[in-house]
From TrEMBL, chain A:
UniProt key word Iron: yes
Transmembrane segments: none
Species name: Methanoculleus receptaculi
Residues engaged in binding [4Fe-4S] cluster: 17, 20, 25, 42
Protein name: Acetyl-CoA decarbonylase/synthase complex subunit gamma
Top-level taxon of origin: Archaea
Chain ranges of the 4Fe-4S domain: 1-59
GO biological process: acetyl-CoA catabolic process; methanogenesis
Automatic annotation (TrEMBL), chain B:
UniProt source species: Methanoculleus receptaculi
Assigned keywords, A-Z: Methanogenesis
The name this protein goes by in its record: Acetyl-CoA decarbonylase/synthase complex subunit delta
InterPro entries: Ac-CoA_synth_d_su_TIM-brl, ACDS_complex_subunit, Dihydropteroate_synth-like_sf
Domain spans labelled CO dehydrogenase/acetyl-CoA synthase delta subunit TIM barrel: 14-272
Pfam families tied to this protein: CdhD (PF03599)
NCBIfam families linked to this entry: PRK04452.1-2 (NF003376)
GO biological-process terms attached to the record: methanogenesis
Keyword flag Methyltransferase: no
Domain of life, per lineage: Archaea
Length: 444, 303
């Protein structure tokens, strides 16, 4: 279990030498206690204390960086089982696979797609992360050539997949300095692979079908000097993957088996439905997901699911307050009020856009709370509405003085009318009913 | 962690539909619930059902679905039959969209449509009314009566309009979908209200409301996980199976604005990712609207 700062402090040299980068040993201990510092930063610690503290102060899931430069991706460093407990921090890297048996053009086209495809959502650019090169030719030189074609790791992070030692040697000679992920060390080949990973400073995947075997392999590789590991639980079914990944994450969070405190690797292409496997990996603890090329539809949905899953639940995505024109509204168009909870906004926007009804959507600041909770919690009040109408100059946009409020805000009708001088119309509670409501009720 | 380790199911078992032996006319009935652990992990009996939604008035139905099913959209009977026989849905969810129209009073139609749809499919049926409590009390009375003994799943009951659904469920022996807006405590409160009305706990299915992927799905996902964890930790007022209906998914911008030749692919990708994620979060039934999503979900669940 995790130790408290003061308990950690007892084991530190108490010299306040600042070589760890913190002003005092106690400050360092406090960072260690929350998994935000590395015990290795202390130059004077006693080896016994280091071994003791190393196991309890590192993040429960180790941070592992794949690739170098701008597009490198860091995964792991997670602290909870469920996103509602705190948040998930490092979205899984999604790596699209190519084979060294493919024509060069096909490899190039996948690489270009990974490099360039961007999905823009709520102000964020969502991208695929890297390329996984599979050694299927049985030819080490061809594998190295394909790795070179994929950029050699200079641009996009790479995963090198082979079961052939000369293949890895040739590929690492091309790409080794850019920290490609090596897949995979097994019970049979871990010694030479761990040596190669150590030589190049590359992260290494260990692959085994049981938790005990995974822990043993990870322990061996860590002992051989490879600090950055990923775990491939090698499951044949999605149910097996979810159950095993959950067990690995739990073990890591509860620190019951330090050798399982690494990010998880998932090869989505080995399951019957790639989309389901990608979704399972995103939702359930994968750090790296290797996938066959995804259609545009699948790619957009997958990247959006990843964004949703890794949104900080303590800071809901909020829409900036203001007046939003929908369907090119004129001076006769209705003004609809709603809250700045992104879900509410997007849902209403969807129905309004689909209805083609021109209107002004007035978003007031309820600190990201829904209509129901903001009315109940006093975050949606007549004062807020009056201030927003004034601040955003709504009176100058339209010739009428009619404000449509959400059905759940009906109790505020009288107060809003008194505070604003606008006449209030109570709209439906359900956004789905808005188009019909407007069609029937809206007459200026 | 909080899983229940006893042999008693943490999640209550709920039987949907009734065979002839059970007093109805269905060829199959289903038991959902019974989980003692997290979804897809240990002590999970894997009872997951895919419902295809149909409606009796397609005017407000997503265009992408209307285009795909063609004439079926104008005939709930044929649509229901295709849902089961052609698309492989475990059950049909009949939405009385006609009742959402202002001034709706064709209540006799509700009874006859219910009867015809029941006759067209051998599977249990879910029925969705309007959003208007006054209309609903008559809608649920009519469809409830028409399906007496069939253990229909009637929806949706909400905190301020649950009485008409509950009354029809009690009078004719049906089940209730208890829908609350993405909040664990509101879900719990509604279940308590329903219990006080006399609806037995093994006749309630929780619908925590599902936002579309990219439009708030993260809240739905977390609330489903939290409801399931609370139940596994012993909260009996939340220990009902869950249903998820990502109803808004097919009207999102990405699907609406897709070029015609990509529209089905876009609709199915977004609906599939949302629906599968809902199962991972703990849903026992997911209702979808695109027939191709049904086929893909069924294959994944059977694998």
């Amino acid at each position: 279990m995790a130790m408290k700062a003061l308990d950690i402090y007892k084991h530190l040299p108490k010299t306040n030498c600042k070589k760890c980068g913190y002003p005092t040993c106690l400050a360092f201990a406090m960072k260690l206690a929350v998994g935000k510092a590395d015990i290795e930063a202390c130059p004077d610690i006693d080896p016994g204390a280091k071994a003791l503290l190393g196991g309890v102060t590192r993040p429960p899931v180790r941070a592992v960086t794949i690739g170098a430069g701008e597009r490198s991706v860091t995964v792991g460093e997670e602290f909870v089982m469920f996103r509602h407990e705190k948040t998930f921090y490092h979205p899984p890297g999604i790596m699209v696979e190519v084979s060294d048996t493919w024509p060069d053009d096909e490899v190039r086209s996948v690489v270009a797609e990974v490099r360039e495809a961007v999905v823009e959502r709520v102000g964020q650019d969502l991208v695929l992360n890297g390329v996984a090169v599979r050694n299927e030719s049985g030819d080490a030189d061809r594998f190295a050539e394909t790795v070179y074609l994929a950029g050699g790791g200079t641009g996009l992070p790479l995963v090198l997949i082979s079961d052939d030692l000369p293949g890895f040697e040739a590929a690492l000679a091309v790409a080794g300095q850019y920290r490609p992920l090596i897949h995979a060390a097994t019970a049979d080949n871990w010694e030479p692979l761990a040596a190669l990973a150590k030589q190049y400073g590359s992260p290494l995947v260990v692959r085994a079908g049981t938790l005990a075997d995974l822990a043993a392999l990870a322990g061996n590789c860590a002992g051989a000097g490879v600090a950055d590991l990923l775990l491939d639980p090698a499951q044949g079914s999605l149910q097996g993957y979810i159950a095993t990944a959950t067990a690995i994450r739990r073990s890591a969070i509860e620190r019951t088996e330090p050798a399982l405190g690494y990010p998880i690797y998932l090869d989505a292409g080995t399951f019957k439905d790639t989309d389901a496997a990608v979704a399972a990996g995103i939702l359930k603890y994968a750090g790296v997901i290797v996938t066959p090329r995804l259609s545009r539809a699948s790619r957009e949905a997958a990247l959006t699911l990843r964004q949703n899953t890794y949104t900080d639940p303590q800071h809901p995505i909020q829409v900036a307050p203001g007046v939003y024109p929908v369907n090119d509204p004129g001076r006769e168009a209705p003004v609809l009020l709603t809250v700045n909870f992104s879900l509410t906004y997007f849902t209403i926007l969807g129905y309004l856009e689909a209805s083609r009804m021109p209107c002004h959507l007035l978003i007031v600041d309820t600190e990201g709370l829904s209509v129901l909770t903001s009315v109940a919690g006093g975050k949606l009040t007549e004062t807020i509405v009056a201030d927003a109408l004034k601040k955003f100059g709504v009176a100058d946009l339209v010739d009428h003085r009619l404000l449509i409020i959400p059905g759940y805000a009906a109790p505020l009708t009288g107060k809003i009318e008194d505070a604003t001088g606008w006449r209030v119309m109570v709209g439906p509670r359900d956004a789905a009913d808005l188009p019909e409501y407007l069609e029937k009720e809206w007459k200026t | 962690m909080s899983e229940n380790s006893s042999d008693k199911p943490a999640i209550r078992e709920v039987r949907l539909g009734a065979t002839r032996a059970e007093g109805g006319t269905r060829e199959v009935s289903y038991v959902i619930g019974g989980e003692q652990g997290l979804p897809f992990c240990g002590n999970d009996p894997g009872r997951r059902l895919v419902a295809l939604e149909i409606c009796d008035d397609p005017a407000i139905w997503p265009p992408v679905v209307r285009n795909y099913v063609g004439d079926l959209a104008n005939n709930p009977e044929d649509w229901a039959e295709a849902a089961e026989r052609r698309y492989g849905a475990d059950l049909v969810r009949l939405n009385f969209t006609s009742a959402k129209k202002r001034g709706f009073d064709a209540f006799a139609e509700i009874a006859s449509t219910t009867e015809r749809v029941l006759a067209a499919t051998t599977r249990p049926l879910i029925i969705e009314g309007s959003n208007d409590p006054q209309v609903d009390s008559e809608v649920f009375r009519r469809c409830g009566e028409a399906g007496e003994g069939e253990r229909l799943l009637l929806g949706t009951a909400e905190a301020d309009r649950y009485r008409s659904v509950a009354a029809a469920a009690l009078a004719y022996g049906h089940l209730v979908i208890a829908q609350s807006p993405i909040d664990v405590n509101l879900a719990k409160q509604l279940n308590i209200l329903l219990r006080e009305t006399g609806v037995p706990e093994d006749r309630i299915v929780i619908d925590p409301y599902t936002g579309a992927l990219g439009y708030g799905f993260e809240y739905s996902y977390s609330v489903m996980e939290r409801i399931r964890l609370a139940a596994l930790a012993g909260d009996g007022d939340l220990a009902m199976p869950m249903i998820s209906a990502p109803t808004d998914t097919l009207t999102i911008r990405e699907v609406r604005e897709a070029v015609p030749e990509e529209q089905d692919a876009m609709a199915v990708a977004w609906e599939f990712y949302t629906a599968y994620s809902a199962f991972v979060a703990g849903a026992s039934i997911v209702s979808v609207r695109h027939p191709l999503t049904v086929e893909r979900l069924k294959k994944v669940l059977e694998a």
